Amino acid sequence: MLRGGLIADGHGGDPFLGDVVIAGATITAVVPASVRPSGGYDAEIIDCTGRVIAPGFVDIHCHSDLSLLAYPDNESRITQGITTEVVGNCGMTPAPGNADAEGLARVISTIDVTPDLEWTWSGVAGWLQALDECSTATNVAAHVGHGSARFAVAGTSAAPLERSQLTALERELEEAFSAGVVGASLGLMYSPGESARTEELALVARVVAAHDGVLSAHLRDYRTSALRRSIDELADVVESDGPRLQVSHLRGVGGEPGFADALAHLETLRKSKDIAADAYPYVHGHTTLIQLLPPALRAAGPDAVVSACMADPATIAEHLASAGYTPEQIIIMKAAKTPDAVGLDLTGAEGDPWRWLVDLLVENQGMVDVAVESGLWSDVDQALATDWISIASDGTALNRTHRASAAHPRSWGAFSAGYRRLRQHGTPVGEAVRRLSTAPAARVGMISGIVSGHRADLVVFDDHTFDAAATFAEPARPSVGLDHVYVNGTAVVGAGRPTAARPGTLIRRRQQ
Ligand SMILES: [Zn+2]
């Protein structure tokens, strides 16, 4: 029994004092203090005096597809209160397409932060089975990545799909839904998914709608001035009766004004279609370095970029220099062949920083990840002030032992930092909790909230002190002010420390 806490049940209303009773993996009673039975329960009592009891946080946009298998203790997520992760975002999944595992690994290199992990599966069903059989601290659900599905049928070709290829793509998506994914994701800035145009996008939307799934979309262009056009491209392929469209990590890139116009436009579209968004509370994005190059240059993928770098390094350096950022604003996050560069910003480069980036691209075969300070805090706060925008991390499952890449602090602190920022800007406790738990869960068709009969995924924290501690310099720092986290009724964090328990399960769409 979680006793005497302030229960924020996930429905957004004012929290109330009371007890939450758990038996096995299930919440069996929610008892307001005003009606607490005098006899009490024969239960282990967890004193929650002065603490908020909330539903476990649900991260519907993360990239733990592979790293969860490498780090099943998942410290980066449980220490910020996340109890369920939805993987398979931005069009990238380690299946389908893994018949050519090496080729697919290059396509999804930005989410492949655990190079030593063996890919043992075949197809989406096999990958989901691997997630299912791995006992993990958190629950996990998955999307199928459109980019990976496209890779399965057409490789890295940038050409429009032919009729037979569209049919094959549809079959890949259908198979993924049969295996139990909760939706499909698009990554319209990444090769080869970015080569999809209207007909192909409409096909994806149609399949997702037929399965009552969610279409989770990394837009084609996040520059503030391009947001409206990028949103319309997707709004045009969803119907009023589906699928649900989730605009992923909504932000304005490039520091231009006009983010409010994009929000207003979404607000208008929401009147006739089921569209919502998620956001993370940081101004640094994290993406592949080749994203800083013009689309025409990067569309053919990292190999083509490397060839261009070798043929004419000065021109590529010029492109990078004119992307709109200063050397201080770019941090190297992943560069497997040049580990000494990881964690540096460009002021750490020897000689011309842009030319140094070109060399890094060549040495790493085009696969370099960067964090870029590309957003405005005022945009972040406008997003957080919007009641249909929930928190999502865009981060990944990690443990403190992780060394293969630098971690964006969002992997360890998006939810605690998001809660703190919401509270600092006057969002009431109940509404802030809703935006971290039931609101995102509903987007992926998942049941959540502190209700008798629901799975006992719960978080106990101090409203006054709960906050992130992770920084770029020290990303692997657990959040502060978090007391207990329960996944399926078992403590994964107890008295502020990970317990090493792994009660998480794979949540398949058809089980719900
Ligand atoms: Zn993305």
UniProtKB/TrEMBL annotation:
Keywords assigned by UniProt? Hydrolase
Superkingdom of the source species: Bacteria
The species this protein belongs to is: Agrococcus baldri
Q: Which residues form the Amidohydrolase domain?
A: 44-212
Which InterPro entries does the record cross-reference, listed alphabetically?
Answer: Amidohydro_3, Metal-dep_hydrolase_composite, Metal_Hydrolase
- Span of the signal peptide: none
- Gene3D superfamilies per the UniProt record, alphabetical: Metal-dependent hydrolases
Designated name of the protein: Dihydroorotase
GO terms for MF: hydrolase activity, acting on carbon-nitrogen (but not peptide) bonds
